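At this stage, I put together a protein sequence along with its fold in token form, as given directly below:
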Amino acid sequence: MSYRWSAPRRVGPAFRPDEWELLVRLPGQVVVAATSAEADSPRRTVTEGLAGIEAIAAGRDSASGLVRDVVAEIYHETDTPPAAEEYRDRATGIAGVLETCRQAAAVLAVRTAREDADAYRHWIEAIAARVCHASGGTDLLGFGGPPVSESEWHFLAELAAAFDR
């Protein structure tokens, strides 16, 4: 099964190639950071990774041309979906993604319309939220637990703050 998106590659004239790459790579990095926010079993990590892939693909239906173009670029350049993974050094990996979010916010603030910047931010936050909620609601024995752990809530709050400039 091919995951290649058939739309042509489009880089808006407002973005330099390095800025465009930052915007295209960030959704996958957010998936890994969100799966890393809480130490999970391999099964939960896979569940979260799959939720992240679905959340990225949901951007195809965005009202924002920027978000749709980023999704098209993600699927254009990859033949296989990203693997479910976690950072070995959670704190360092998550800190790096949060810094990349701040960089993306700065790029969006000067290179695109407010509506597209807001749509991109909300899409990134929705990806993270979907990942964090994917395996929640069960404790170690598989019974009712909190839908999102305290460390996942903390990550989601830090992610939102990273986009606030």
Summary: The chain has one domain: 17-163. DSSP finds six helices and no strands in the chain. Residues 1-9 have pLDDT under 50 and may be disordered.
